[in-house]
Amino acid sequence: MYILRTKKAKQYITCIILLATLIILIGCTAPQNNSNVSNAETREASKEVAVIEISPSNSFELLKEGNARFIDDKAGIKDISLERRQTLTEGQHPFAIVVSCSDSRIPPEIVFDQALGDLFVVRLAGNLVDSVALGSIEYAAAVLESPLIVVMGHEKCGAVIATAKGEEVPGSIDSIVRIIQPSVEKVKAMGVAGDELYEKATDENILNSIEEIEKSPIVKELIGTGNLKILGAKYILETGEVKFFSEVD
User: Fold this and answer.
1) What confidence score (pLDDT) does residue 249 get?
2) Annotated binding site
């Protein structure tokens, strides 16, 4: 009987020790959880500050810096983690709107070395701006408060070349040609021909798209308040450089 009681006593003591250990472990992990919450709140606060501080000028600098990294083969590692994607489910704050040609060689996110949620991209062949594209631009500028619009064309644009050559095109491709045609005719009237015609017409087409965007009352109002800027740009295929037509003060 004595031996039996001793074994039960030992079991009882062991249970007490295990319970005490569990309480200590719970107590030790509690501050760590609070720290995680605090870190998460800090990260969220930092994101909010970044959104508030963004402006046309520093958006322009971010694009230039990103393109410089791309040119030098020093593109950064992009955060495409689950955590980043989950953060973006709460909303988006793209710092720039890029209107570009659909050409597979000039994806804006890569050309400007940016990550998920950084750019609001509108792409149509010939970097054209129709009513749907304009509505998309207005949404990004007015609702998402992106402070910079860049209309980016590129060298040897097939849409411009086809228009300049006057070639017959099938299907709805003709709708692209009709929009680009005025830019081509304007440059032809200057006596320009050949490859120079293609490139100058491309530049003129970029400017024409900018004019279309500026006709928007929403865009016009935002430009008037100084909260929005529009720039033209051209991508150089061989070097990867994006040449901006102007700067942001």
Assistant:
1) 80
2) 101, 103, 154, 157
Q: Domain 54-244 belongs to what architecture?
A: 3-Layer(aba) Sandwich (3.40)
pLDDT in tens, 33-68: 443 433 344 334 334 434 447 899 999 999 999 999
Binding-site entries for Zn(2+): 101, 103, 154, 157
CA dist list (Å): 91 to 94, 120, 143: 10, 13, 11
Q: Is the dihedral of CA 150, 155, 158, 161 positive or negative?
A: positive
What is the DSSP secondary structure assignment for residue 101, as one 8-state letter? -
The closest of 145, 108, 196, 214 to 231, measured between CA atoms, is 214
Domains of the chain: which residue ranges?
A: 1-53, 54-244
- Please give the Cα distance from 106 to 103 (Å, whole number): 6
